[in-house]
Design a protein that fits this description.
Layout: H1 3-27, H2 33-49, E1 52-53, E2 59-60, H3 61-73
Organism: Neoroseomonas lacus
Protein name: Integrase catalytic domain-containing protein
Length: about 80
C-alpha cells in the first residue's frame, strides 16, 4: 500500500478518537442514538468554525480554508 493511501484515513481516525473522548464519553450517558449524532454534529461545528488556532492567526480552520480558496481563485491560470 502506498503511504499516501493511508494518510487521510489516519487523520479521520484521529478525529474519530477525539469525538469519542471529548463528546461521547464526557457528555454521556445518552438517551438515544439521535442525541449522540446531534452532539457530534455540534462538536464538529465548534471544531471547524469556532475553535481558534494560534498557528494560523487565531482564526478557525474553516476561516483559513475560506481564505485559501479565495486566494486560489484569484491566481492567474497558467497554460
Amino acid at each position: 500500500m502506498r503511504a499516501s493511501a493511508w494518510e487521510p484515513n489516519a487523520l479521520a481516525e484521529s478525529i474519530n478518537g477525539l469525538n469519542e473522548a471529548v463528546v461521547i464519553r464526557r457528555r454521556g450517558p445518552w438517551l438515544s442514538l439521535k442525541a449522540v449524532e446531534f452532539a457530534i454534529l455540534e462538536w464538529l461545528d465548534w471544531f471547524n468554525h469556532r475553535r481558534l488556532l494560534a498557528p494560523i492567526g487565531n482564526i478557525p480552520s474553516a476561516g483559513a480554508e475560506a481564505r485559501y480558496d479565495a486566494a486560489r481563485r484569484n491566481l492567474p491560470v497558467v497554460a
